[in-house]
Write a structure and sequence with these properties.
The protein has about 140 residues and is an alpha/beta fold. It contains seven helices and six strands, in the order E-H-H-E-H-H-E-H-E-H-E-E-H.
Length: about 140
């Protein structure tokens, strides 16, 4: 699935998007990397719904503002429909995120979630913090 002009494939979970949304500069950095083909960020309907929900509950965004940011993320990410979800993580709500990263053969799953970070490397996917991913970019 990886293209020769894209260097990095990644999935950012909702905890990573929350961290990034707090800093418009980092969102702009990722958007620029996407535009020039240095990175492709993938999403799924499940992930986008989780992001929208968490923007409301964890950031205190209104429903309208949470939907606005979810639409922004939808525009800058590559959609992928999940076919197979295998129980992998202690928290079953993380399994569709891991499945998405596996489906598109991502190099990185970017997260602030300890349940994912403790996996370290799973099927060739490196679980990294948002800060480390920004350094990689």
């Amino acid at each position: 699935m990886q293209s020769s002009n894209v260097k990095i494939y990644a999935v950012l979970d909702s905890s990573a998007w929350i961290k990034l949304i707090r800093s418009h500069a980092t969102v702009k950095l990722i958007a620029r990397r996407i535009e020039v083909g240095n990175v492709a960020i993938f999403s799924s309907k499940y992930l986008l719904a989780q992001v929208e929900r968490n923007f409301g509950t964890k950031l205190g965004f209104s429903t309208q503002k949470a939907k606005k940011y979810a639409r922004l993320i939808r525009r800058i990410t590559v959609p992928c429909d999940l076919v197979h979800i295998i129980a992998t993580c202690r928290d079953p709500s993380d399994d569709p995120i891991i499945a998405l990263a596996a489906e598109v053969k991502c190099a990185y799953l970017v997260t602030e979630d300890y349940d994912l970070l403790v996996l370290g490397d799973h099927d060739g996917i490196k679980m990294v913090t948002t800060a480390l991913f920004l350094r990689i970019l």
